[in-house]
Design a protein that fits this description.
about 35% helix; five-stranded mixed sheet; Sulfate adenylyltransferase; DUF984; alpha+beta; globular
Length: about 150
């Protein structure tokens, strides 16, 4: 059994959770950023995230309220479990400063969040052979740390 599955099974046992499914992932790209963002989640500072809705592939799980997630650091080690509380599809240019603040990154300002996400999403879209615009639909997710 791998370390992620073991971590998940221990969590289920400790919290008497019957759920059998979970997603395991890290935030960001690159070990340093992934470590930093995992730490922010673990500390309860980062309680939200945003992904580009159009880039979910057919059949890929789209986050929804009630989901459990094993958050990984940059080395693929589990650091905590979160539970998704809310998801909402919103055009990028209509995401509120409050959501940006809850993402917990940088100085937590809307401008910081905006600049980082334009850069990140532009690269994601380019890799998919598409062009990012500020009206693309985004999945805004709010979660809480449960372990």
């Amino acid at each position: 059994m791998d370390k992620i599955e073991s971590y998940w099974n221990q969590f289920k046992k400790e919290h008497e959770i019957q759920a059998s499914s979970y997603e395991a992932y890290s935030f960001g790209l690159g070990v340093e950023v992934e470590d930093e963002l995992a730490s922010l989640v673990q500390k309860g500072i980062k309680t939200a995230t945003t992904s580009t809705f159009d880039l979910y592939e057919e059949g890929e799980h789209v986050p929804q309220a009630g989901d459990y997630n094993v958050i990984l650091d940059g080395s693929g080690n589990p650091v905590c479990v979160t539970k998704t509380l809310l998801t909402e599809v919103v055009p990028f240019n209509q995401i509120m400063a409050e959501h940006a603040y809850h993402e917990g990154e940088g100085d937590r300002s809307y401008q910081y969040w905006h600049d980082v996400h334009v850069d990140f999403f532009s690269r994601e879209y380019a890799e998919a052979g598409l062009v990012f615009t500020e009206n693309v639909p985004c999945l805004c997710e709010v979660f809480e740390v449960v372990k």
